[in-house]
Structure formats: structure tokens, C-alpha cells
Amino acid sequence: MKTKFSRMLTLILAFVVHLSFAQEKTISGKVSDDNSLPLPGATIIIQGTTTGTSSDFDGNYSITANTGDVLVFSYVGYATQLITVGASSTINVALKADNALEEIVVIGSASGKSTKELSFSIGQVKNELLENVPATNIAGALQGKISGVSVSPTGGQPGSDVSIQLRTANSLATGQQPLIIVDGVILEGGLSDINTEDVERIEVAKGAAGASLYGSRASNGVIQIFTKRGKGNDKVSVTYRSEIGWKDVSDRYDLATTHRFKMTADGTAFDLTSGSREVDADGLSDNLYPSNIVFDYQDEIFNKGIFNSHYASVAGGGEKARYLFSYQRLQDEGIIALVEDYRRDNFRLNLDNNISDKISLKTSFFYSNSNRDGSLGGGIAGTNPLFEALITEPIYDWHAANEEDGSPYNFDANTFDPNLYNPLYQLANQDKVEKRNRFLGNVSLDYKVLSWLKLNGAYSIDFENNTFEDYIPKGYLSASPDGQAQNIGFLQRSSFNGRAQNIRLNSLITKSFGAEEEFNLNLRLSYLHERYANEFNNAEGYNLAVSGIRSLDNISDRPSVSSASQEILTDSYFAVADFDYKKKYIFSGVIRREGSSLFGPDTRWANYFRASGAYRVTEDIEIPGVQELKIRGSYGTAGIRPTYEMRFETFNLQNGSPTKATLGNNQLKPAKTGELELGINIDFLDKFSFEFNYVKAKTEDQILRVPLSASTGFGAQWRNAGEIDATTYEASLNYDIIQNDNFSWNLGVVWDKSEQKISRLDVPAYLTGPGTQETTLFRIEQGQNFGAMFGNVYIRDLSDLPAGSNASNFVVNEFGYVVDAATRSTPVKKVDSSGNEFFTMGDITPDFRMAFNTTLKYKNLALYALVDWKQGGDIYNKTKQWLYRDGRHQDITSGLPYNFFQGLYNTNLASSAFVEDGTFVKLRELSLYYTLNSKALGNIGNFIDTVKLGFIGRNLLTITDYSGFDPDITNQSESSRANLTSRDTDGIGSDVNTPGGDPNVFKVDNFPYPSTKTYSFSVQLTF
């Protein structure tokens, strides 16, 4: 019996051993990231054992395991993944980047914090969103991705910059542009040079509550841009991306094809018996033009433009040294005929070196060279071909030869209005060239003195060299744009050099205290020295001696010479401390003291601070379905610096004779914003992340231009003289609808609502605007919303008739206006009991802004879309007003008397007839990508890791009732750095009360370069 039992036990044991060996097998596969790039050195371990292996250089691995074993895949910076061994012997794994690591932000903190540990709101746009639809201007990539951010395009011209506003408008006179920092370099120039492909992430501190650390330049918020760097994984990574596409104007005006003038009896010609054209007796614009050919000059000036970009980068390195080198070439024809294309070449080199265990060196260098045709400006005739294209009657052949010399584009084709010239002749013969060279550099050295103490020193520079040339050849026929240059020629050359240098010294203390080190402190003590200097030189003159020679020596008349220079010095001392208890009770504080040559000597130093706190409720209380709940509050102050011209006495110097302009102010100080921010963050159901902010801000000591009496000899002085109160509500939601290996769907929503009111004004109420022709549209008055439009209001209801009017003498016409019943030609203005005819007629403030972005991925296919929605907010359509004046708008042909439209035109004064609702819903971005990995590429996959093919669309669809080209556009302000030479005006001008205009606030459509919709295809290769 005992023998039988032993034999049976032996058989059972042999069977078990045999079964075990039958289940054990070799598992192999490839470990890659979510972009299908191999991850060399990834760790693969059988859970619960010490048995493991690592992936090779190509991400391949092999391990012996049993069915049912759990393999643990891990890699630094990526989320660990567990997979159970099944029937298959091949397991390929795509590790996803660890979100916790990606959520570390630097802006506004001592040394970088997880977003869960922040006590104030920070917006962030990551590389994955930026890469979906790379913007030619990185600032444009912010639109619709962060709540409280408004991006106003200054026009569709290639190379133009954009205007950014974070939350509300804080300044009445100096604009709303935020401070921008790129890789530690504080920018003085714009962002139009920076290409998106280099950017790793963007962080945004939207107001003083988060941006106090940056002092007198931070009331309008701070945008910090971080570019890509070498990964240090001992692998060389090469990326090449090419995109080619075409662009077209988003919309066109429907123009009148009939007119109001008398015709001959047979209708073949205008009746000129009186020597000129006369208006037909019926007063209607319903007569056909005498020719069967009616031109649409929009067809003459608009082209379908081709654009292309090429980008290449090489990145790599190891533990000691890392590098990234990139190059990008952009070429964009634009959409205006006879205009040279915009070209930009960018080079970047980022280096990281661990010199020793204690010393590390970090460098970032960027160089950009760009060329742009400067022929185009906004506004009316002279610099803007769109003006003539829309205003000119459609009966002239612009392509006809000039009778004077046989050259194309008959310059004076317009026989009835000699003040309107053929813009094609000007574009073909006048040559304006803008060139820019830009260098950004930052060198940072870290020294780790002790485990808890690190010292840092850094030097950064933003240098720009801009040149401008305007050449009108000898023999130039037209009097546009400059009648003085007609026949004799003109040459202008100007240059602008700006150099912003900064030196930073930091000491960082990082300590944990307590028995369990539950108290954590990050303390940074810093000193910042800023030095900015610029120089402008200009020479110009008429009457060129020899045709075709572009030299100042060729000017026969005495050239006009001008120059200007500035130097600004600033010193700042500041401390920022981040403190927490067990990472659930969080506190942060900032103190900054700053002195600048832009502040008056009697108010040389300014102080700023921030105090903020947060409580992570879910660290103490477990709430079913809620992973994170944080409530927070922050109060901070930040400033707005006066400009150089505001601080010092200014003179106009002509022919050696000075004339006093503005009086300097020794008491002038920066405006100061105090902002309270209350917010909540909640992550719930493992799918949703929600944030809400309530913000209340007051900006006092507004810097305003105050008129002076003639006895002073100066016309005005800039003083601190007003306040703005502002309120903002912001919300954002991220929803991971579906997340699995083969399919994912994500939805992001941002929403904000803001308003700003002038709560105090220590000067008389005044009118201002973006510049020439628009200096009286916006009223600055205590108690008014900032952005309120002011002018004549034409009534739409008989009950609004002026006192004493007989209602039976008036009717409401087909356009909804009250007009006289007898002729129906005279619209009626609103008049109050005191005889006042000027009232608030609009407000640029929208009811809210909202945007939706969504990404769907199925295996190797990815679809992305961004829809942007602005509800409300008025626009003044100056273009339409001009078209009414000249009878070119399609409304004129509606059967109503021409004089009715002339009444609404209001002799070019502000009229409520041209205030329009700017509501729109826009499909701003769309992309579709398909990625082929090395396996799908066959033999090519031996040296190419991935091929990514894409279709990209920008501004493909706009839904709006706005009658202009696009409700999402405004004119470019004169002092915008979008012009390669900052002193070169674009024809718009600016009001003295608001230098440079304010495109974020002054929403005026005045023949702008139209926005464009683009379609393109891209290919990206990674090696």
C-alpha cells in the first residue's frame, strides 16, 4: 500500500513538473512611447520576482515567463504598465508619459511645483496640443486652449504679430500685452519670430495674483515659453517635418453692381451734358453700368497663396551632456497679388551639461532672419490696396497699359475720381522691404553648495536688428502713395537696433522639517538687473538723380535725417517662498522691490507682493468618486511701467529747431494692479478635471496724458490719474471620455467672462481710438465700461423721437430706422432733452468666450479639432461706413434712397449704423494624422522609426452675422513690433492719448488685411 502511494505521488509530481515546463515560454516584443518611438533601457520584470530584463537600443526585449505571470514595464518619465502573459508570445507595449511629471510648472513659483500643489491658477499648453496644428506664430497657438486668454490677430499678413490679452484690460493708455519670457529670456520684441515646432510647453500666469513675482511688468500677466531639449537617454533622435498648403481669404464683400447716376437715353453711357455726372432724379442706386463688363477688384488683388515650412531637429545626449539643434524654414506668399512672400529662417541650439555632481551649465541660443514685403498697411488709401479695391467703381480695367510709357496697370484709370489710383501699379513699382535679425540667448550656471542649497547665475539677451527700405523709382507715374515722389522718385532707409540684457542671481533653499519631514520649504532669493537700449536712424529724400540706383547718394535734394535712442535701467530684489504641510496645506508668498529709470526720481522704488494658500481636501477626507479636491485663494500686486516717452520731457526737432511736446514727470510711478483670485480644482470619476476661478482686480495710478495750459510751453504731461475695476469668471473642464489601448477620446472645454469699468478718472472725460480716422470712437469716462463706443445713435422706434416731433411725419423703413415720411431719405438721430446728440452706442466686451478642443485616436489614426466661440462684443465696421459713403456697399442697391445711406454715413463721424455684433463660432483648427511605425514600413523601418502623414486646416469655417470679412480681426497698431522696423508706421497712426492704439480694446474694422483659411498636408519622419 505504501509502495502504491509512493508511485502515485511520483506520477503526480512528474505531471505537475511537465505541465509547468509546458506553460513556460519566451515572451518578446518592443517597448515604445505613445508616438511609437522605441524606448531603450526600459525595465521589464515579472511581478513578485527579481527576474527581469531591459529593452535594447531599438526597444526590443525578450524574457522567459509562464502563462499567467504579470509583466511590469517601466521607464523613467513614463507611467508603469502591467500586462498578464496569455497565449501570445509577443507583447508590444506603448508606455504613456507620466502625467504627474508633465504637470510640473515653473512660472510664479520658487523652483517648480506640481499643479496639485499650486495655490494660484496657472494655464498650461503642452506640446501634444501645439503639434496638432502648428501655428506660424506661437502666440496664436494659445487661442481657445486656456480660459481667460484672448488673442486678437492684427491681420492675416504673413509675419504679423498678434495681440494677447490675459483676463481683463488693465491699462487705459499703454496696452494690454503681457510679459513674455522664452527659455529665461525676457522679450522686448514680439513673438512672430518663434516657431511652434521648437516649443515643449507654454505656461501662463494670467494676472497679478499669480504673476506678482515679475513686478512692474506683470499686471497684464506673464507668458513663459519652454523649448525642447535633449532627453539624455543615450539615443540620437532625428525629426524632419514638412508642411505645404495654400491659403485664401476667409470671405469677401458683396459689392454694388449698379449706381445712382443719370444715363443717356440708350443707356450706353453716363449723361455728361452738364460736364460731370449727375445723380438720377429718383435718388436710387438701380442703374446699370454702361459696359457689359463689371469688375470685382477683389479678384484682382486676392490670390490663393502657397506656403510651406520645413523643420529638422537633432537631439540626444547622455547623463553628462544633452543637446538639441533645430532649423526651420518658412515661406508664405500671402493672399495679396504682386506682394513678395514672407521668408523666415530659424536656428536653435539648446545645450545641457552636468560638469560635475555640483555644477551644471544650461544654454539656449536662438537666431532668426526674416524678410517681409512692407507694401501693405491698414486703413485708407495710400498704403492699403484693399481700400481702392472696394471703393473704386467696377468699370475700369486695372490691367490696361499706361499711355505715358506703356507699362502695365494703368495708374490713373479712374476718370471720375482722380484721388483713387490703381493699387496694382503701386504694388508693382514701389518696393518696400523689411528685414529683421533676431538673437535670443540665455546662459545659466547652477552650483549645488549643499544638499539643501543651490546657487544660480544667469545672463540673457534679446537683440534685434531691423532695417527698412522704401524705394519709389525715378519716373514713377502715380501720385499714390506720395505725390511729392511722382516722376522724380524717393528713397528711405531706416534701421532699428534694440538690445535687452538681463543678469539674474538666485539662491534656492529646499528643506524638509519635522519628525517625518512633513513640513516642506522652497525659498528663492533673487536679484535681477535689466538693461535695455535701442537706437533708431533714418534718412530719406526725393528726386533721384539716376534711375535704378538705390543709394542715398543718388538723392539730388537735401535728404531728411532723423534719429532716436533710449536706455532703460531696472534693478529688482525679490523673494518667493513655497511652504506646505504634508503637501495638503499649501502656502506661497512673494515680496519684490523694484527700482527703474522709468519711475520718477521722487517715486523711484515700487513694492509688490503675493500671499496665497490652498487646502487639498481629499488629502484629509475621502470623498467617493473624487480623486482630488483643492480650494485656494490668492491676493497679489503687480505693475505697468510707463514708457520712455511718458517719463521724460520730449521735443520735436525739425531742421535744428526744437519744439516742446510733453513735459516730464518726476512723480510718475507705475500703475499697480491688486488682484484677488479664488478658485477650486476637482478631479473626479477618474475621467474629469475641472477648474473654476473668480477674479476681482483693481488697477490704480493709471498713466494718462493730461493736457497742460499754453503757459507751460508743453502740450501735455503723463500723470497717474485713474482706476479700472475688473471682474473675471473662468472655468475649464477636461474629460477623458474613453481611454484604452486602441481607442481614446478626450474633450477639453474652456470658458470665461470678463468686464472692466473705469471706476475713477482724475482728468476730464475724453475720446480716443486706434488712430487716424478713429480717434473719437471710444469714450474714457468715470463710470463707463472700458471699451464703450460713443457717437450718434440713429433711432429705430417712433417712441424715441426727439421731444416736440410729430410722429405722423416719420416712419420706420425696411432697414428698421426711423426716417422722414416725405422722402424716406433722412434717418433720425437720438437727441436728449438738453440737445445732446452723442451717446454710448456699443461695447467691445463679449458676453463670454468659450472653446472646445477634442482629440480622437484609433490605433494609428488621430483626429483633432478646435472650435472657438465668442458671444457678443461689438465691432465698429469702418469699412462699411466708407462703402456707404461711396455707394459701393450692396445695401445701397436695396431700393432705398441713396441719401438715406449718406445720412447713416454721418460724414465719417461715429454712427450707430456701423456698430455690429461680433458673435462668431469658428472652426479654428482641424487635423487628421496617420502614423506608420517601423514594422509597417517594412525594410524602410530599419532606419525610420515613424512616418506621420497629416491633413491640417486653419479657420476653415466661421458662423457669424457680422457683415465684414471676419469678426475676429482688428487693425494693426502703429507701434506694434509686428513691423520689422518698429518706427515704420503702417498708415493707421495712433491717437496721442493711446500710443500705438490698443487692438485688444479698440475693435475697429478699417480695411484690414483679411484673415485667411488654410489647407495643408504634412509629413513627419523620425529616425
Structure description:
The protein is mainly beta and 1023 residues long. The strands form twelve sheets. It has a 22-stranded antiparallel barrel. It has a five-stranded mixed β-sheet with strand order 10-15-16-13-14. Strand 28 and strand 29 form a beta hairpin. The longest helix is centred in the N-terminal third of the chain and has 22 residues, at 2-23. The N and C termini lie far apart (71 Å).
Coarse shape? globular
| Annotation field: number of helices | 10
For the sheet with most strands, the description reads: 22 strands, antiparallel, barrel
Number of strands: 53
User: What is the gyration radius calculated from CA atoms?
Assistant: 33 Å
Oligomeric status of the shown chains? single chain
Q: What proportion strand? A: over 45%
Q: Which class best fits the helix and strand makeup?
A: mainly beta
Give average pLDDT, whole number: 90
Q: How far is the first residue's CA from the last residue's CA?
A: 71 Å
Secondary-structure blueprint:
Layout lengths: L1 H22 E10 L9 E4 L5 E3 L5 E7 L3 E6 L2 E7 L8 E3 L3 H4 L1 E2 L7 E2 L8 E4 H4 L18 E5 L8 E5 L12 E4 L2 E2 L12 E7 L2 H4 L10 E6 L9 E13 L8 E2 L27 E2 L8 H5 L3 E13 L3 E12 L9 E13 L4 E15 L11 H7 L31 H7 L1 E20 L2 E20 L17 E24 L5 E24 L17 E22 L3 E12 L8 E12 L9 E15 L3 H4 L2 E5 L2 E7 L7 E14 L3 E13 L2 E5 L8 E5 L1 E18 L3 E19 L4 E3 L9 E3 L7 E4 L18 E3 L5 E3 L18 E5 L2 E13 L2 E12 L1 E4 H8 L12 H8 L9 E3 L2 E14 L12 E15 L43 E2 L6 E11 L1
Parallel strand pairs: 1-7, 13-16, 33-37, 48-52
Antiparallel strand pairs: 1-4, 2-3, 2-5, 5-6, 8-9, 10-15, 11-12, 13-14, 15-16, 17-20, 17-53, 18-19, 20-21, 21-22, 22-23, 23-24, 24-25, 25-26, 26-27, 27-28, 28-29, 29-30, 30-31, 31-34, 32-33, 34-35, 35-38, 36-37, 38-39, 39-46, 40-41, 42-45, 43-44, 46-47, 47-50, 48-49, 50-51, 51-53
